[in-house]
Amino acid sequence: MTPADRVRRPDARARILTAATTIFLRDGFAVASVDAVAAAARMSKLSIYELFPSKDALFEAAVRHAFGAGYQPPPRDKMGGDLANALRDIGIWFFERFIDPTNFGLFRANIVAANHFPDLASELHLHRLRASQTIADDLRAWVDRGELHTSDTWVAALRFGGLCVEGSRYFLGTAPPSGKTRAAIVARATTLFLNGYAAAGTGAFVDVEPVAAPTLPGTAASRMSPDRLAALLHAATDEFLANGYRSANIDRIVGAVRASRATVYRQFGSKEGLFRFVVEQAAYDAAQELYAIAPGQDPEEETAALALEVLDRHCTTDNIRLQRLLIQEADLIPDLARHYYDAKIARIGKALAAIFERHRLPLPDPAMSRAFHALATFALRYLTDAALPDVAQRRREARDATHLFLHGVRAR
Fold this sequence. Notes:
Elements: H1 3-7, H2 10-27, H3 34-41, H4 45-51, H5 55-70, H6 83-99, H7 101-116, H8 118-144, H9 153-164, H10 179-194, H11 226-247, H12 250-257, H13 261-268, H14 271-287, H15 299-314, H16 317-328, H17 334-358, H18 366-377, H19 381-384, H20 391-411
Helix pairs in contact: 2-3, 2-5, 2-7, 5-7, 5-8, 6-10, 7-8, 7-16, 8-9, 9-10, 11-12, 11-14, 11-16, 13-14, 14-17, 15-17, 15-18, 15-20, 17-18, 18-20
């Protein structure tokens, strides 16, 4: 048997894919290397390239291997009997699957794919919807029995899943919660879901320290002129948003503004220093966009306007790119990712509290504000879906989210 024949054996391919899946999902595309895969598979790089001609091809094959082998349906034996108990069981299953290293890694891979591998991104997005579709099919039985009132069980399943995992929170620097805390979050999500997303607000809204403008590092002697600095930051922002931190190329950044690497390092100290400044500036710019909803005739009109504004901002190209970057690099900058998310929830919470106060409704607490954000933005859906909603669809989704949210608040 020739060396080429040995490489083409099914067990050789399986060993490579097993090793590649572990490394890509654990380390991410930018950090993972073919050398590391070869070492883990105990094969040479040449052997790997016999089957997969590039790192890109190996990544795509490894990701497809992961979601092809790793899908498990929700526990269908829990779908009968009491609706509340069944939903809590499903919610806990969903949360545990969500934080499973393979699934967590697959979502981060989806972020990379959304920027660089559009066909793979579409497959990953559909894979993530499979569990929701299975749950939606089972919810139909409760709808038929009159225990659940919704005209679209698929949308209901997506919203339930988003509430259970609190949207993008755990991808943006917050550590996944313990089993006891997960159960409490799911129990609350189930109550919100069944009672129109209602839960007793405490009125104890926790303020978050405002996002401060970043301080330009370096000494006065090292600082660039304002115009040149602005051009450099614009080029750096584009490079980081397009390629992530690890794959970003300093030479491309300085080449765009005819500067030198030495100039950048004198000003920012390192590539990471430049990256942190760019992210801090982007977070600061986003924090200046407050939500100001004009008083209306009723809380539903005002809350729908807030939900639409939240969704409109969420679906902008700049926001999608920034959130993908923060998720992709959350292990490098967990403090910035976490503060970005918390500050956004605080801004939404203040706007929501102003509406509720005008109409004498219970003031929202942070958990309620996170739930509103997850509903208004459809949780993680549009961070990976290539097809963003048009204006008419956003208005419908904002109205639907508002109706369910306020129905629960009034019914508590």
